[in-house]
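In response to reviewer comment 3 from the previous cycle, which asked for concrete evidence that the modeling workflow produces usable outputs, we include below a single protein chain processed end to end. The sequence was submitted unchanged, and the resulting structure tokens are shown without manual editing.
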Amino acid sequence: MPFQIVEKTGFLNLMKKAVPQYKVPSRSYFSTNKIPAMYKEVRANVEEQLTEGVWFGATTDLWTSSVGGGEPFMSFTIHYLSTDWQLKSHCLETLFFPDDHTAEHITEMMENMLLDWKIKKESLSGITTDNASNMRKAFQSFPCVWFPCFGHNLNLAISKVLKIPRVESATRACRHLVQGFSRSWKRKRELQKKQAELNIPEHSLIHDVVTRWGSTFEMIARFLEQQQAICGVLAGDRNTWHFMPKDNDITVLEKVSQLLCPLHDFTDVLASEKQVTLSSLKPVLEHINNEILQDQEKDCTLTKQMKHVIREDLLMQLRYTEEMKNVLNISSFVDPRFKGSFAENLDDTVKACSDEALALASHTEDPPAASTQSTSSTNTPTTKRKEKSLSGLLQQITSAKMNRSLTPGYAMPSIQEKFNSEVNLYSSLPAISADADPLAWWKAHVEEMPMLSKVARKYLCIPATSVPSERVFSTSGHILSPQRSRLSTENVNMLTFLHFNMN
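The workflow returned the following structure tokens.
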């Protein structure tokens, strides 16, 4: 609600009845005092949580508000794995971006946001944005890999399907029908009666949004679900028969719904902020190309045409560079649900993973324990009771092994040998089920495979889509409403931040 609600007569009367002795603060108290104080407190908490992250995935997007002066904003979300292998994400900024949306200005804006949050560019393992040329160019100089949003690319491909003349005509007829019901309370009322009579779920018809193909699919699917009830309503009034799509249009809508349903499901799954997504991208793409979009004998001409359009456009949009392919292969390999089952060349993938593990080990490997420390631990007197306990015996065994490793002439295994040993162990373990949590698996096996787990920590936090940033703008659109069109850009940022980060 707008800050000014605290000065409205109705609200003041309510508070006077509810808490007579309480004096309601002014509007300026909330806008200039309370909200900034809350923002400062929550920001400090988020900054503390960010210290758990070693590697970070990021998303960003650009948006222009539809109210006020049409101010442009840039969002910034961060994703990382905590010390206990929990995938965490935060909306950090929704900043006013008055400059031209050139690649140079986007790069400068992102660098300033990273600096403000004390996140090093070198700590970014990936950035996911839409496929716009300015975004693509903006992050070429970053040390991390840039990924095009899978959802955006799929949206572009399916948008071309919806422009096929027969599909466009059928979709327009369905949209006309939905509008005819939404503008008439009488038809809505009769639809509810028919739904009850026919024992059909009492769902409302759905309007689509032109920029979101998912909403068009939902509109078509809902029409097909309610088709019997809709026909019952329209049959009772001759003047409404023109709303009903023709039989040919309904057949087209059924074919469109049948093709888009699995694609819609994949888009929703890969847009999650609570699950690992990038490692699933390669298996999903392979399934889409080899199963969903492959021509079948039973397919009609229109279905084959739609599949061809999506396949050609999607393959063109997803022309991954060698660096992108490398990251996709590594992320899929270190996901215990897939391992190497989706690698085009398993040996090359293991080699790339090995190179990454060695690079990480050279920067983050802990120094070996000092000899004085091991000596003091072995010379520490222990009681007879402790020596006979399991912990005491294990302490003696590990101390003896450490002493042997410090003995001159003892050959310590090289880092490469350690990694090879970990890969052999990893490959020997059975893959977990597809619906299991890969992060929970790594949490249980991190001590067995410390080098490989570092690679997993780096790449499993990268989101496959830029949907997190788009969700930020959906929320900002509700905050910067027509009733709050004079809200300052600073307050938009603070209120959006609080919405996403308050516990």
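The first strand starts at residue 56 and ends at 64. We consider this sufficient to address the reviewer's concern, and the full set will be provided in the supplementary archive.
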